[in-house]
Amino acid sequence: MQITPKFLQLATKPDLTQAIESGGEKTAAELNCVKIGIIQEFHPENLTVQVLIANKKTIGLNSDGSQATRDYTPIYAKVCYCTPFGTFPINPGDECVLLFNDREVESWFINGNSNPLAYPRMHDITDAIAIVGIRSLPKMISILADCFNLFYGQSNIALSEDHINITSPTVQAANFQAMNGADGNIVDSQGKTLAKVEKGIVTEIY
Fold this sequence. Notes:
The chain has 206 residues and is an alpha+beta fold. It has helices spanning 5-12, 16-30, 106-111, 137-144, and strands at 34-43, 48-53, 57-61, 67-70, 75-80, 95-100, 128-132, 148-152, 155-159, 164-167, 184-187, 193-198, 201-205. The strands form 4 sheets. The protein has a 5-stranded mixed barrel with strand order 1-2-5-7-6. A 3-stranded antiparallel β-sheet has the order 8-9-10, with no helix packed on it.
């Protein structure tokens, strides 16, 4: 079957709605509003942090059709740090929310008060403000592991990073299992060995 020129013309004719949607998607993809960051360095002398943006940047397609990605170049952000009386330590690996100002922030950051804009950039990744405190689930579990306590009646379970303390009138060691193939002993809060563990399996109960 021969394809007519009229059919080709209709098939390739630009659609205004599609063009507008495509332009909107392209603008949205390049716009920086809010991202999650992972702190690499903290500089208390000027309240800035070097931050790695948590998601990767899509740069095209691989030969197999999958997305080709790479890390964003680490950026520097101003820190939302409360007051000198309400500070807290900021360490590499801490997570944060990155807000990208509508316009450049250097004029205000350097001079304070109200200033004419020195640069025409908008929603640029160089104009980031970091708010520290947000946590991913693995980070949250790590924090909770250092302060988790469960009370019921006369029994108490205290969970820390490397051990569990159990206080109870009766402890049934046969119900314990060690995860991740660990070796060691199950010990109660008084230091008494309840069971021996080899490769994650309770092998002896005392």
